[in-house]
Structures are given as C-alpha cells and as structure tokens.
TrEMBL record:
PANTHER family attached to this UniProt entry: CYTOCHROME P450 4A11-RELATED (PTHR24291:SF39), CYTOCHROME P450 FAMILY 4 (PTHR24291)
Entry coiled-coil feature ranges: none
Family matches, as InterPro entries: Cyt_P450, Cyt_P450_CS, Cyt_P450_E_grp-I, Cyt_P450_sf, Cytochrome_P450_Monoox
Source species of the chain: Chrysochloris asiatica (Cape golden mole)
GO cellular component: endoplasmic reticulum membrane
Lineage of source species: Eukaryota, Metazoa, Chordata, Craniata, Vertebrata
Record protein name field: Cytochrome P450 4A11-like
Gene3D superfamilies associated with the record: Cytochrome P450
Annotated heme binding sites: 457
Main location: endoplasmic reticulum
Recorded GO MF terms: heme binding; iron ion binding; oxidoreductase activity, acting on paired donors, with incorporation or reduction of molecular oxygen, reduced flavin or flavoprotein as one donor, and incorporation of one atom of oxygen
Length: 510
C-alpha cells in the first residue's frame, strides 16, 4: 500500500517541482523585463528632459491622445504649445523626438545619422536592404552605383513613356465616367505610376494597367503600408517570433510573398532577355543604362559586387518607392486642384497655350509651366507624399537654440507638421501657389517633400517630371471637382494616403 501510494506522490512531487521552477523562472523573467522597462524609461526621461512633452501615461504613452487615424492632425493641435519639437511617447519605454522646425531639420539633415531600426526595420522583410534602408559604406556604394540611372540623358526619353501611361489611365477614366462621374483616384493613379516605373526603370515592354495581375501587387503594397504602421504602434508586435504568430503577422507575410512574386518575375524576364547576346551587345553600347541594367550588369561584370539578395532588395525598393510616392503625390495634387477651381483653370490655360491641342508633351515643355509647377509645389507642401522620416542619433546633437540630445535617441523628421507650422508658413492651411513664385523667400529647410542632405530622394527629378506630365495631361482632358460627401482624411502610412479614398467628380472637357 505504502509503495503503491508513494508512486503518485513522487510524480506529483515531480510535477510540483517543475511548476515551481517554471514559476520561479517566469518571475525572474518578469522582474528582468520590469527592470529593463524601468531603466530604459529613466534613461529616456533624462535624455529628453530639455524638451517638454504633452502629458502622457507612464505605461500607455500618448496612446489616448493620438488616435490611430488622427496622428497628423494631432500634431497640428499641439504646435502652438510646442513650436519646434516634442517627445512623442509610444509607450512607457519607447519615445522619440518629433521635430518640425526648419533650423532643427537643417541641423539633423546636415549630419549622417543612420535610419532608425524602430521605424524602418519593419520594412525590411518587404523591401530588404535596398538604398532606402541601407546605412554606412554599403549605402554609399549603392548610391554611387545607382546615381547614373537618374542622369538627365536617361530621364529625357522617360517623358514619352510617362505620357503614354497617363493617357492609358485617362482613356480608362473617360469610359468609367459615362457610368459614374465620381472616381476613386488613388487606385487608378497607383496602377498608372506602377506602369510608368516598370517601363522606365525596368525596361518592361507592356502596359500593366490593362492586365489583371498587378492589382494584387498594388493591393499588397496597400496592405503592407497599414500592417507596418500598426506594427510600429503596437508594443506586443515588436518581436519577430511573436509577430509571425499573430493574424497581422501572417497577413504581412502573405502580402510580402505577393509583392516578391511581382518583382521576381520582372527580374527573371529581364535576365532571360539579357541571355540573348544581341540584346546584351545593345546594352553595352548604350551610353546610359537604365536602372535594372545597371544592377544586372554590375553583377555580370563583377560577380562579387551584387548578390541576388541585394539585387532583389534594390528592385523591391525602387518598385515601391518609385510608384507609391508618386501615386500619393499625383492624387493629392489633383485633389488640391479640384478644391481650387480658379487655380485649376489657370494651370489648364497655361498648359493649353503651351501644348495647343496636340497634347504631346516632351522634356522641353516641363520647365515652361511655371504656374502649374507652383501649384504642384504648394500641393506637395500641404500634402507631402512622404510625411515623416526618422533617424537614430549616432552621436550627441545640439540644436541652434542650445538644447541637446545624447547619442541613441530617435528623432522623427515630421515634414507634414513642418509644412503646416504657422511659425514657418503664414496661414498654413490656405492653398496659395504664390508662396512658390519666383523671388519669394523661404528658409532653406522650410519645404522638404524630398527630404534634404546626402540622403535626400534619389528620384526627385524623375518624380517632378512625372507629376508635371500627369497633371498637365489630366487637366487638358478633364475638369475636376471635389465630392462633398466624401472628404478625404489624410493618414500617414509610409506614404500619405487617405483613410477613405480620394474621390473626385470628373467631367470630360470639349
Ligand atoms: C513625389 C514623389 C516622391 C517623394 C515625395 C519622395 C520623397 C522621398 C523622401 C522624403 C526620401 C527620404 C526618405 C528617408 O529619409 O527615409 C526619399 C528617398 C528615396 N526615394 Fe523618393 N520620393 C518620391 C519619388 C521617388 C521615385 C520616383 C523614386 C525612384 C524612382 C524614389 C526613390 C527613392 C529612394 C531609392 C530613396 C532612398 C535614397 C537614399 O537613402 O539614398 N523616390 N524619397
Ligand atoms: C489585402 O487585405 C485584404 C483584406 O484584409 C485581403 O482580402 C487580401 O487578400 C489582401 N491582399 C494581399 C495581396 O495581401
Ligand atoms: C568586385 O568589386 C569588389 C568591390 O566593389 C572588389 O573588391 C572585387 O575585387 C571585384 N571583383 C572582381 C572580380 O572584379
């Protein structure tokens, strides 16, 4: 009997022992986490002490103050009280300094701090270590390798390709509006800009606007933009292993696969093309190579210079940066012009007198539309397509007003708030293209849609050309007005998007 009894007691004792060890370990882990939280929080509080912050909760940070879809608007509400910068607490142990003053911008952009992992790291599974995410020597080498792809001799012939993509979109609009005069722009424009970057940078021969497949790429980019943003804002989603097990993590993985399928196919086709000796000779003879040629040839002439992984990362980066930013830009510019019919008409008249009825636009026209360019810039001010970027300080910094931050702090350059800062722009909410009239003076760092310094946008000229071509050709064919029942709500999701789409009333001109 006693022997019989002793077995279960032994087993129970064993289980109890294991449970004890587990709870002890959990307790130690918990204490460790609490200590880590506390120490990091104390460090942040001390590092940021020269910068007053709106009241925040010790654990939930500014969670309550910043509603998920009203972040941009919330910054503007606090700008009077905090005119240059304030610490934004995501949660108790995560804060960054949000900056929106031109002198602060100038100080930061004059240095070479790396991109912050907190903000950009979550883009890595998607766009890899391409130019946007690279730092240090590797960034420098890639930037030097790719800069020739944006030489004006290369950009010149792109104008025709851009115009062609825009006309395909406008033809689609013309058919659509016979059924419903209200169009959601963002999706149409995204397809068009994807079409453009595929033809220009990747020598793609067909128009993807007419096919079906690329819708899934555009959709994947839209999904990923939301998922990446939610992840940045969620303390529990930071760890890769945990994130992968959540429904959001699985959606992100799926969307990445769809996006990569698209870019892989582009690389494969171009590689197959280059197997052809004649084609290879043609490329060698070209004085200037396009973007994908540069990447592929860099690899072929020097096997060690660009791994397959690096190549994929650059293609993913340029596929994304090269279409989503311009889609945002064009959509919001057209929205701004719809809201301001007088300016819209002045642009239209300028373009009509420049192009006549032929509607053929070339490189030489692009610097002969000053009024339209002013309107484009003013729209980029109010609706910057890349609203926020960020850096982590690699050494201490002191701003011109004497305040300073230690190494290791993340600073977020909030271009959107800078562009709406009443200290920088009088009546910032008023659309006034004459702010950009020749001779108007601004601070060198008051207007930064393409960022500044050595890590500014490599595609700036390409983008400006595309914006001009798209706006000019659209205004020649259509009159745009807003949809008063669906006012777009700007949200920051890597690029500036609208929570509820961008709907316009589109009427054909005669
Ligand atoms: C209106 C359109 C565009 C806007 C507003 C824009 C804006 C920006 C901004 C603000 C940055 C700095 C990002 C940061 O600091 O994290 C940037 C970087 C970059 N942009 Fe653009 N961009 C546009 C179009 C394009 C296009 C068309 C391309 C490619 C063809 C492109 C390629 C890139 C790349 C590769 C970088 C990273 C550059 C580097 O770090 O060296 N962008 N862009
Ligand atoms: C995007 O998200 C929607 C809704 O969550 C989903 O139905 C769709 O399959 C996703 N598409 C991609 C390509 O991730
Ligand atoms: C390729 O380039 C790297 C650095 O750019 C260099 O170190 C290497 O020697 C080159 N290899 C060949 C085969 O030229």
């Amino acid at each position: 009997m006693s022997v019989f009894m002793s077995i279960p007691t032994g087993v129970l004792g064993g289980i109890a022992g294991v449970l004890q060890v587990i709870s002890l370990l959990s307790l130690v882990l918990l204490l460790f986490k609490v200590a880590q939280f506390y120490l990091h929080r104390q460090w942040l509080l001390k590092a940021l002490q020269q910068f007053p912050s709106p009241p925040s909760h010790w654990l939930f940070g500014h969670n309550r103050e910043f509603q998920k879809n009203e972040e941009l608007q919330q910054f503007l509400k606090w700008i009077d009280k905090f005119p240059c910068a304030f610490p934004r607490w995501l949660w108790g142990s995560n804060a960054f300094l949000s900056v929106y003053d031109p002198d602060y911008m100038k100080t930061i952009l004059g240095r070479s701090d790396p991109k912050s992992i907190d903000a950009y790291g979550f883009l890595r599974p998607w766009i890899g270590n391409g130019l946007l995410l690279l730092n240090g020597q590797a960034w420098f080498q890639h930037r030097r390798m790719l800069t020739p792809a944006f030489h004006y001799d290369i950009l010149k012939p792109y104008v025709g390709l851009m115009a062609n993509s825009v006309q395909i979109m406008l033809d689609k609009w013309e058919k659509r509006i016979t059924q419903d005069p209200y169009l959601e722009l963002f999706e149409h424009v995204s397809l068009m800009t994807l079409d453009t970057i595929m033809k220009c940078a990747f020598s793609y021969q067909h128009s993807i606007q007419l096919g079906r497949n690329s819708h899934s790429y555009i959709q994947a980019v839209g999904n990923l933009s939301n998922l990446v943003f939610s992840r940045m804002r969620n303390a529990f989603y930071q760890n890769d292993v945990i994130y992968r097990m959540t429904p959001d993590g699985r959606s992100a993985h799926h969307a990445c696969q769809i996006a990569h399928k698209h870019t892989d196919q582009v690389i494969k086709q171009r590689k197959a093309h280059l197997q052809n000796e004649i084609e290879l000779e043609n490329i060698r003879k070209k004085r200037h190579l396009d973007f994908l040629d540069i990447l592929l040839c860099a690899k072929m002439e020097n096997g060690s210079s660009l791994s397959n992984e690096d190549l994929r990362a650059e293609v993913d980066t340029f596929m994304f940066e090269g279409h989503d930013t311009t889609a945002s830009g064009i959509s919001w510019i057209l929205y701004a012009l719809a809201m301001h019919p007088k300016h819209q008409q002045s642009c239209r008249e300028e373009i009509q007198s420049l192009l006549g009825d032929r509607a053929i636009i070339t490189w030489d026209h692009l610097d002969q539309m000053p009024y339209t360019t002013m309107c484009i810039k003013e729209a980029l001010r109010i609706y910057p397509p890349v609203p926020i970027v960020s850096r982590v300080l690699s050494k201490p910094i002191t701003f011109p007003d004497g305040r300073s931050l230690p190494k290791g702090i993340t600073v977020s350059l909030n271009f959107h708030t800078l562009h709406h800062n009443p200290k920088v722009w009088s009546n910032p909410e008023v659309f006034d293209p004459f702010r950009f009239a020749p001779g108007a003076v601004q601070h060198s760092h008051a207007f930064l849609p393409f960022s500044g310094g050595s890590r500014n946008c490599i595609g700036k000229q390409f983008a400006m050309n595309e914006l001009k071509v798209a706006v000019a050709l659209t205004l020649l064919r259509f009159e745009l007005s807003p949809d008063p029942t669906r006012v777009p709500i700007p949200i920051s999701r890597v690029v500036l998007r609208s929570l509820n789409g961008i709907y316009l009333h589109v009427k054909k001109l005669h």
